[in-house]
Design goal:
Layout lengths: L2 H13 L7 E5 L5 E5 L6 E5 L8 E4 L2 H9 L4 H6 L4 E4 L1 H11 L2
Parallel strand pairs: 1-4
Antiparallel strand pairs: 1-2, 2-3, 4-5
């Protein structure tokens, strides 16, 4: 699993969902970060240096947990409750995203 492969997996998930309408940054620590710009159609999803990214919500988690989240083997609510996922910014956007990824 790499940042590029997870970016492609996220793009696949975004393609089967309605527009998000928000910008979300997935902060994967030393591995880097991915930005989902759902304010444009089609959504722009790609790596980011994280320095100048304006996002409505930032989700911080490990690369491994992000892979599990995208594959459906890690429940977003459980990840948040156990500290595997940290949210800053709008929790409403995070909840909308969790519903989209859970499909």
């Amino acid at each position: 699993m790499s940042l590029d492969s997870l970016t492609e997996k996220l793009k696949s998930q975004a393609a089967i969902n309605p527009p998000l309408g928000y910008r979300v940054q997935f902060n994967l620590g030393e591995e880097g970060s991915i930005v989902w710009d759902g304010t444009v159609t089609p959504p722009e999803i790609g790596p980011s240096d994280g320095a100048d990214t304006e996002a409505d919500t930032v989700l911080s988690l490990s690369l491994e947990n992000f892979d599990q989240l995208l594959s459906g083997s890690l429940d977003p609510t459980l990840a948040y409750m156990t500290g595997k996922l940290k949210i800053s910014g709008s929790t409403g956007v995070a909840m909308k995203l969790a519903a989209m990824l859970g499909d």
